[in-house]
Each structure stands twice: as structure tokens, then as C-alpha cells.
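Title: Comparing notes on inverse folding

I've been comparing how different people in this forum approach sequence design from structure. To keep things fair, I'm posting one structure and asking everyone to reply with a full sequence. Here's the target:
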């Protein structure tokens, strides 16, 4: 498995890190809340709600990133090291994005989100 493919696996797991953060940070997740976890997550405020929002955004960006990595490998136009570096940079951008979301740093979060999107688009360009 290449580093870029490994980054896809990490990107798949990142939303779950966010949802665990949301549930734990709420301090009130229990078996009763587990009967309606989506309703529970929608009712959160503050840090837990931001963690939930980071989870949703992480799921939203995942298909584009995974497709870019797969297409990048299949197209064969880019060196493996370049694909790996872009994928690692994307994961770093997602970790910073999540930290910005949790810290309620909206402007920086938006900038980091844009950087991550540019990294995904870059994979398509280097593969062409």
C-alpha cells in the first residue's frame, strides 16, 4: 500500500475521531442518547457541536480526496512521491482544520479548508 492510500484510510477515520470528541466533550452521552445518536448530536452546543460539524465536513470532503488519490494512481502521470506528499499535506490540513473548528477559529478554519481543497485539486493536476 502506498502512503497516499494510507492517507485515504486516515481520512476515513478522521470523522469518527470528531464524533467521539463531540460525544465525550458533551459529558452527557449515555445509553439513552445512543438510541438516537443523530438527534443527540444535533442538540449539542459549543465545543461538542463544533466537533460534530467537523465530523460532517470530514465526511463531505472524503469522497473527493479518495477519488483524487485513486485517479492519481491510475492515471500514472505523477511520481509516487508527489502523490504521497500531496496526500500527507491533505491529512495535515484536515488535522489543522479540525483543531481550528474545535478552537472556534472561523477565519483560519476557512483558510485551511481552502488549502485542503486546493490539495485535492492538485492531485488531479499532477496526475494529468
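Reply #1:
Here's my take.
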Amino acid at each position: 500500500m502506498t502512503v497516499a492510500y494510507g492517507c485515504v484510510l486516515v481520512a476515513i477515520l478522521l470523522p469518527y475521531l470528531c464524533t467521539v470528541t463531540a460525544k465525550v466533550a458533551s459529558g452527557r452521552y449515555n445509553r439513552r442518547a445512543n438510541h438516537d445518536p443523530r438527534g443527540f448530536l444535533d442538540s449539542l452546543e459549543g465545543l461538542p457541536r463544533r466537533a460534530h460539524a467537523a465530523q460532517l465536513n470530514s465526511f463531505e470532503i472524503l469522497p473527493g480526496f479518495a477519488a483524487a488519490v485513486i485517479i492519481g494512481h491510475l492515471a500514472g502521470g505523477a511520481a509516487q512521491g508527489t502523490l504521497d506528499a500531496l496526500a500527507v499535506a491533505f491529512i495535515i490540513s484536515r488535522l489543522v482544520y479540525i483543531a481550528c473548528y474545535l478552537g472556534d477559529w472561523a477565519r483560519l478554519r476557512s483558510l485551511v479548508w481552502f488549502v485542503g481543497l486546493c490539495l485535492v485539486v492538485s492531485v488531479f493536476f499532477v496526475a494529468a
